[in-house]
Amino acid sequence: MSSVLMIFIDGVGIGKTDSEYNPFFKLGFKTFQNIFNQIPHLNNTELTANSIYLKGIDANLGVDGLPQSGTGQVSIFCGVNASALVGNHFGPFPHSKTIDVLRDKNIFREFLNKKKKVFFANAYPKIFFDYLKSGKTRLSATSMCCKMTNIRLNTATDVREANALTAEITNERWNKKLGYKIPVISAKAAARRLLRIASNYDFTLYEFFLTDHLGHGRIKDEFEKVHKNLDDFLFELLTKFDNKKMSIVICSDHGNYEDLSVKGHTRNPALFITAGKNAKPIADAVNDLTQIKSAIINNCM
After folding, report:
1. Contacts of 42 (CB under 8 A, 6+ apart)
2. How many distinct helices (H) and strands (E) make up the chain?
3. Which of 41, 226, 233, 260 could tie 187 with a disulfide, CB 3.0–4.6 Å?
4. Is the pLDDT of residue 41 over 90?
């Protein structure tokens, strides 16, 4: 069975070779250094090694101002220029003008229309389901895609049974911040879990958003731990997956984390990586956020 694993990482662009404000240069990142033998930067935004392709892609989409998560994520998951549709970049949640697009054109629905098996690998804590029950409706693009496409949202039980992942990879923050008592796993173990899960589906999506939090100056006390967990997670994925049966797509919606000299987003190219079975045609087809969905659909379905 051929499968696609998509990893969405919030707020990661390709920035300057700055060891003070760019965490990839300050702390190192073996996903870049060990695979490509270098760290991408604004003067070198395209790297290739062992059929793994990295490039910076346009997140500005012809619209002035700083790219935002709401319009950026709709552009990624639905293949439309949501910023142009709205008239400006908008976030962090999807704009009301993009709701119909989210419902009708999201990537889950495209796979389901072709009778393919899809899975959203993130789990949500009880506080999120209590929020839904209260009638509140401000949700991320991924959560809205799932609700509009009748895709089940995973719970803490799914994490305990090793059938889903928390959004922070290791479960540690769920225990520390939310009072759960779920076994903490390593980032490498989480990556292997995700690969096992994804091998059972035609399309699997996992999202990680703590990079955007760090870029905005939040959770500073966990900076190096979050950075290392993400690095271990991505490196394990890219070095342990079956590249004959799986395509991996890693993408972001806008810059932020790569430039800590500011606490807002940037207009830098967004990070995009492809690996595996259909990596090159996907990489060749993508130059901005709006082309990610069609590249996956056209080359992997």
Report:
1. 14, 15, 16, 17, 56, 268, 269
2. 15, 7
3. 233
4. yes
Strands 118-120, 270-276: pairing is unpaired
Written as one letter, the residue type at 151 is I
Contact assessment for residue 294 and residue 247, using Cβ atoms and an 8 Å cutoff: no
266: DSSP letter: B
In sequence order, the β-bridge partners of residue 24 are none
Question: What is the token pair recorded at 77?
Answer: 């998951």
**Closest C-alpha among 82, 83, 132, 141 to residue 107:** 141
The residue type of 174 is: W
Report d(CA 113, CA 31) in Å as an integer.
Answer: 35
What percentage of the chain's residues is helix, strand, coil (to nearest 5)?
45, 15, 40
Q: Which long-range contacts (CB under 8 A, 24 or more apart) does 223-228 make?
A: 223/23, 224/27, 226/168, 227/23, 227/27, 227/29, 228/27, 228/187
Residue 193 has which token pair? Answer: 């879990």
Long-range contacts, stretch 181-190, CB < 8 angstroms, 24+ apart: 182/156, 186/232, 187/228, 187/229, 187/230, 187/231, 187/232, 187/233, 187/236, 188/232, 188/233, 188/236, 190/165, 190/233
- Does the pLDDT value for residue 25 go beyond 70? yes
pTM flag (> 0.85): yes
The model's confidence at residue 1, banded by pLDDT at 50, 70 and 90, is: low
pLDDT value of residue 220: 86
